[in-house]
Amino acid sequence: MSQPAARYQRSTGGMVGAMIVLVVLVLAWVGLRALTSHDPGTPVRSVDYRLSVPAARRAADFRVLAPSRLPAGWRATTVGYRDRPTQHWHLGVLTDRDRYVGLEQGDVSVPRAVSRFVDPAASRGPSVSVAGRTWGSWTDSGGDLALVRRAGRTTTLVVGHDVPRGTLASYAASLR
Fold first, then answer.
1. Does pTM top 0.90 for this prediction?
2. Which domain holds residue 111?
3. How many structural domains does the chain have?
4. How many CA atoms lie within 13 A of 25 on its CB side?
5. Chain segment 87-142, per-residue pLDDT in tens
6. Who's near 75: CB < 8 A, 6+ residues apart?
7. Using 50, 70 and 90 to split pLDDT, how confident is the model at 16?
8. Full DSSP string of the chain
């Protein structure tokens, strides 16, 4: 005669023990993956903004400004010109310390540009002289500083996050 198959004893303690072993194995696996895998994140790609400047200058009804070259270590990351609903020129760069500086131009009022690109609750600061021209300054509580100038119907705004005022002024002076 054959013997019936042996049955294991089921108990709450045994189930809890098995769950603990399983959780420890999963945590060990997750920990090992965290230590051995390297996620580089999404790298910020550089763009050659100088290729877009001539087309934007031909299309715009205002004088499109851009630096002839960027300071050492700076790199352009975003560039664009939009014709509608209103004309707008944008150039975004990262400084040699990976701080963002944006150039925004278009037929928009200074308060609207500041609200959109700095902060709706930005505070007006002292005026700044840049290459013999007066620019207004605006700051927000998050560390943004903007230099803004209105010429005719065109507002030019240079904004930086945690960028010194002198650095922004030098960048604004380089715009041609």
1. no
2. 49-173
3. 1
4. 6
5. 999 999 999 999 999 999 999 999 999 999 999 999 999 999 999 999 999 999 99
6. 46, 93, 94
7. confident
8. -PPPPP-PPP-HHHHHHHHHHHHHHHHHHHHHHHHH------PPPP--GGGTHHHHHHH-SS----BSSPPTT-EEEEEEEE-SSS-EEEEEEE-TTS-EEEEEEES--HHHHHHHHT-TT-EEEEEEEETTEEEEEEE-TTSEEEEEEEETTEEEEEEEES--HHHHHHHHHTB-
Sheet with 133-139: list strands edge to edge. 75-82, 88-94, 100-106, 154-161, 144-151, 133-139, 123-130
Amino acid at 79: V
Tokens of 21: 């072993």
Give the residue, 44 or 132, on which the prediction is more confident. Answer: 132
The answer to whether residue 42 is domain-embedded is no
Asked if residue 98 is part of any domain, the answer here is yes
What is the number of residues in the chain?
Answer: 176
CATH number of 73's domain: 3.30.200.100
